[in-house]
Amino acid sequence: MKVIDYAAPKSIAEAVAVLKEKGERARCLAGGTDIIVQVREGKRRDVEVLVDIKHIPELNELSFDAKTGLRIGAAAPCYRVYEDQRISNAYPGLIDAVALVGGIQIQSRASLGGNLCNSSPAADTIPALIAMETICVIAGPGGTREVPVQGFCTAPGKNVLGRGELLVTLKLPPPKPRSGAAYLRFIPRNEMDIAVVGAGVSVELDEGRSRCTAARVSLAAVAPTPLLVNEAGAALVDGTLNDALIENAARLAQAASRPISDMRGDADYRRHLVGVLVKRALQTAIARART
Amino acid sequence: MTKKLHIEAKINGKDTEFLCEPRQSLLEVLRDVLQLTGAKEGCNNGNCGACNVLLDGRLVNSCLVMAPEIAGRSVATIEGLASPQALHPVQKAFLENAALQCGICTPGFILASKALLDQNPHPTEHQVRHWLAGNLCRCTGYDKIVRAVLDAAKT
Ligand SMILES: Cc1cc2nc3c(=O)[nH]c(=O)nc-3n(C[C@H](O)[C@H](O)[C@H](O)COP(=O)(O)OP(=O)(O)OC[C@H]3O[C@@H](n4cnc5c(N)ncnc54)[C@H](O)[C@@H]3O)c2cc1C
Ligand code: FES
Ligand code: FES
Q1: Do residues A169 and A71 touch, judged by C-beta distance below 8 A?
Q2: Are A141 and A167 members of one domain?
Q3: Per residue in A246-282, pLDDT tens?
Q4: Does B74 contact A at CB distance below 8 Å?
Q5: What ipTM, to 2 d.p.?
Q6: From A5, which residue of chain B is nearest by alpha-carbon distance?
Q7: Measured between alpha carbons, how far is A42 from A23 in angstroms, rounded to an integer?
Q8: Which chain A residues are closer than 8 Å to B127 by Cβ?
Q9: Which atom of ligand 3 is nearest to the CA of B109?
Q10: CATH number of the domain where residue B53 is located
């Protein structure tokens, strides 16, 4: 492994300074479950410094308030999110995704920020974050800016972070009344595999609980970046909730997906899975919204 | 020449100092610097669990922890599990259930199982299998391992 230095900044300003100075030669180290493997396997040959961001207080934040919502520090590992009873009660659709990243050992370390910044099209937490209207708080040499999570990834392994920038916080709005969300993925094993397809959805229902007032459908592993399929969400607010409406949304999600064929599945298979998973995830989200 | 870092940490309850290169993993330091060879290198990429240790009480793959990260923290390896008087109940159950063949996966499985029983003393078979999904064994077919963990849960 070529890395020749390890830095452990204690503040955002210190981290920004190192990242700005070193550019491509520095990479943030959160849980390390992607970056250590990539550096070791020679996939990131330019990296000379790992910048451990776990000593920066803001990046370890985890706070929930029913009025203002959830704030997840970018380096907070998965287990902290799903072991928090208030968070798992309020955001079951997020927990669906967070609890299936890797196995126990991975969840002790892997962060949601790392999952997002690694920007794999198959990352499990991103569709859930998209469905839940997450905002990314980014710090950099020019100060702080906010980006909606669906605009964060730009290509496989690439995102909007510029030189000197790091992700600080993921902000999720408070759960709305009569809302529900769910994330489902398909893998050939029961655990520990990369999504063939993932689907994250959220719905808000009217007072009669028979119509959607808002809906979001997001997909993993069917395009170069995670997708937010606006047409599918729009189709769900267009009538009384029934099987036909859900089927139609699933069809629109299939139409929007642009999967490739690889060893995990060919494009047709993936498109088929999109239909199945979107339908099932919607059924779960609607059931959660009704309880 | 890479500069070496001086790290202080608690290893198996003992205050320990060591020198490491910033590129070294915790697994490399345990095995090559501290001569604690109980943690094994299987895959070196997070998939097999043979390198499992407890970092501040939580199960991690030591191949995916950089050695400098453990400064000021505590690491428990398989070497620290038994008391001078007796094996840990999980170790005993692995022996009694013949839950190993070649044994390379065993330290990882035992630490993973201990971590499970510490937080859930009476798991179901399904919970045991789910928890151990991050540990691979090429020899046993897992059944005897699962039985050993369920057995240890009874004691
Ligand atoms: C065995 C195994 C199983 C896995 N299973 C899954 C799975 O089921 N689902 C899944 O989605 N993924 C899985 N992964 C991939 C990985 O665990 C996740 O992507 C994880 O969430 C990454 O988080 P991390 O904290 O470990 O990131 P790191 O490896 O620390 O960082 C990932 C990338 O993001 C950058 N980065 C991290 N934090 C920031 C920040 N705050 N600002 C800017 N850049 C940052 C890093 O520089 C690096 O490029 C698995 C990995 C392994 C080894
Ligand atoms: S050697 Fe660390 S998980 Fe395989
Ligand atoms: S006993 Fe040989 S790998 Fe498990």
Answers
A1: yes
A2: yes
A3: 999 999 999 999 999 988 889 999 999 999 999 999 9
A4: no
A5: 0.96
A6: B22
A7: 18
A8: none
A9: 4
A10: 3.10.20.30
